[in-house]
Specification:
Elements lengths: L13 H30 L2 H20 L2 H18 L9 E6 L3 E3 L4 E8 L9 E7 L2 E7 L7 E8 L5 E5 L2 E6 L6 E6 L3 E6 L24 E2 L4 E7 L11 H7 L3 E6 L5 E6 L9 H20 L3 E6 L2 E3 L4 H9 L11 H11 L5 E7 L4 H10 L5 E7 L6 E5 L2 E6 L5 H9 L1
Parallel strand pairs: 2-10, 14-15, 14-17, 17-18, 18-20
Antiparallel strand pairs: 1-3, 3-6, 4-5, 4-8, 7-10, 8-9, 11-13, 12-13, 15-16, 19-20
Helix pairs in contact: 2-3, 5-6, 7-8
Length: 422
């Protein structure tokens, strides 16, 4: 005879479901209420809190002591607060368009933009104040009342006296009272980046590549296996038998193998030091950036594969636009990032097949630091060091196997490079 165990009931009490439902509703109400309270608290300016506290304090003192004067002050302050809150009522549903004439300019060039606000709704929008952040500053515009279908356009200029990446926006529509007690802001649109490129100079002359790629001239280094034939040599133990030249071997009676000149893919690397201790002043650092940008643009025009490196990271430099955009955002580094020698070590570690390396630093870089930096670079690379030294005449010297040029102004760069490439 088989006995069956009684089945366990899986039904939950109805009261438990109701309690869970009420908890969910209460949590939702509290969440929405908290959001509303945060929005309301965000609209209250510090002065409004002070006035509210003063009104409450006057009322608490006036009631037990019967001071009518304090009660009147509390009533007046309360009326002022209530009246000012009425200015927050109203729609700010503008259709906002932020447009820059150009998103890339050179230092000193004029940069302008336009801010257009349109009322696409069926009701008028009361006067508002529009705040437009521009970099570290901000501009404010007073917008008049806009009827349905009406537009308002504001033109503005962006300061470009310094290199950098200037973030324009996001636009904030602010509704507030004349006393500045309350302020309600709504953000509209996304910010736009304005790239203020460093000054550069274009120059002609001999290619900066020094070494050509497979379609050009080979290097002077010899190799057992490459594509540019150099000569026939007698076989040595360890030579690849596939490189044996059998006709010459049969004619001479000695086993002869082919020898090649080494060809390298042109790999142009620019190392820009960000160490503040290597520059005498901020303008010297800007000169170094302009020098690096000018050399990089020339190398790109020569169809070189250019890589730009600073302490801590590699920068995009595949095209001239990418190179200048990257240089626009370069800032001086920290002491722990190291100087020119540390940067050279990073170049050697990450780009061991560099054919040309250009190091750019400041006037406070010592000869010992330059020598150590050049010694760390990959063996066989052509090394050029450019020292930015404001006001100095262009000069050329040798440190080890590297050419070192000193440039005191951007316009001197073609003359200084001419000495190297002569």
């Amino acid at each position: 005879m088989t006995t069956t165990a009684p089945a366990r009931s899986t039904d939950r009490p109805a009261g438990s479901d109701r309690e869970a439902g009420w908890r969910d509703i209460l949590a939702l109400v509290l969440a929405r209420g908290g959001t509303r309270l945060r929005l309301i608290a965000g609209a209250v300016r510090p002065l409004a809190w002070v006035l509210a506290g003063a009104a409450l304090g006057c009322l608490l003192i006036a009631l037990p002591l019967g001071w009518i004067e304090l009660a009147v002050i509390a009533l007046v302050l309360a009326i002022v607060l209530v009246l000012c809150t009425l200015f927050l009522i109203g729609r700010t549903a503008y259709d906002i368009t932020l447009d820059l004439a150009r998103t890339r300019v050179v230092v000193g060039e004029r940069a302008v933009g336009a801010l257009t606000l349109a009322n696409r709704g069926s009701r008028a929008i009361l006067p508002s104040r529009v705040v437009l952040p521009v970099g570290a500053g901000r501009g404010e515009f007073g917008i008049k009342r806009l009827a349905p279908g009406e537009e308002a356009e504001e033109l503005f200029a962006i300061p470009t006296h310094r290199r950098g990446v200037v973030s324009v926006g996001p636009v904030s529509v602010v509704r507030g009272d004349p006393l500045g007690l309350f302020e309600r802001a709504h953000r509209r649109d996304d910010p736009i980046d304005l790239f203020v490129h460093p000054r550069t100079i274009a120059f002609d002359g001999q290619s900066l590549g020094f070494l050509r790629d497979l379609e050009g001239l080979p290097a002077s280094d010899l190799s057992r296996d490459d594509v540019s034939f150099h000569a026939l040599n007698e076989y040595q133990p360890g030579d690849d038998l596939r490189r044996v030249h059998w006709r010459s071997s049969a004619r001479t009676g000695v086993l002869m193998v082919r020898q090649y000149e080494e060809t390298r893919r042109s790999h142009f690397v620019i190392g820009l030091s960000r160490a503040s201790s290597e520059y005498a002043e901020a303008e010297e650092f800007e000169l170094a950036i302009s020098l690096a940008g000018s050399v990089g643009l020339r190398a790109i025009r020569d169809a070189q594969h250019v890589e730009l490196r600073v302490q801590g990271r590699a920068l995009a430099s595949g095209t001239g636009k990418q190179l200048l955009d990257s240089l626009a955002g370069v800032e001086e580094g920290r002491a722990k990032d190291g100087g020119l020698a540390a940067l050279a070590g990073t170049v050697a570690a990450h780009m061991p097949l560099s054919s040309v390396v250009v190091l750019v630093g400041g006037s406070r870089t010592s000869p010992e630091e330059l020598r150590a930096a050049c010694a760390r670079l990959p063996f066989g690379s052509r090394v050029l060091a450019i020292v930015a030294d404001l006001g100095e005449a262009p000069s050329l010297r040798r440190i080890g196997e590297a050419d070192v040029i000193t440039v005191g102004a951007l316009e001197q760069l073609p003359l200084a490079l001419g000495k190297v490439l002569a």
